[in-house]
Amino acid sequence: MLSEFAVRKIAQAVSDEQLPDIQPPLAKTAAARAHYAEALSVTAEKALRAHGKGIVEREFVQERLAEAAGDLYALIACLARANSRIMKEGAEAARRDILLTRTFGNAAWRRIRRWLYQVEKNQDANLTKVSDLAYEQGGYGADLVP
Predict the structure, then answer these.
(1) How many domains are contained in the chain?
(2) How far apart are CA 146 and CA 14, in angstroms?
(3) pTM higher than 0.85 for the full model?
(4) Domain span at residue 93?
(5) 61, 94, 113, 136: which has the fewest C-beta neighbours closer than 10 Å?
(6) CA distance 47 to 121
(7) Which residues of the chain have pLDDT under 50?
(8) H or E stretch at 7
(9) Taking the mean position of all CA atoms in its chain, how far away is CA 32?
């Protein structure tokens, strides 16, 4: 269950202080990561305010926030690894890590943005109706499968 405490912890865990010595080749990706963290925090807080204790029953919302948080966590891990390599071996030796981090960061942002958008704008009602209908009918029906 998402609580106000959890929302604050998300914001704190991914604050700028967590990556204080970020190297210049990763600065843009690290700055973007801060934006993603803020977006996740704001969206989680909105969801909590909108649903209150009912957030427990909002599995679609929880899934979307968890997916966004997972991508953000993975991006932070990529940044930390690449940054560490740059500090130990130099930017030239860390070219591959830098490229992987930037590439993953771009893809992660697309996924995070989609997950967070779908917290408010989604097909949840229709998905629930389809699921309920399939349950009532004992499946999706033989006519759907050739």
Answers:
(1) 1
(2) 49
(3) no
(4) 4-140
(5) 136
(6) 12
(7) 1, 16
(8) helix 4-13
(9) 13
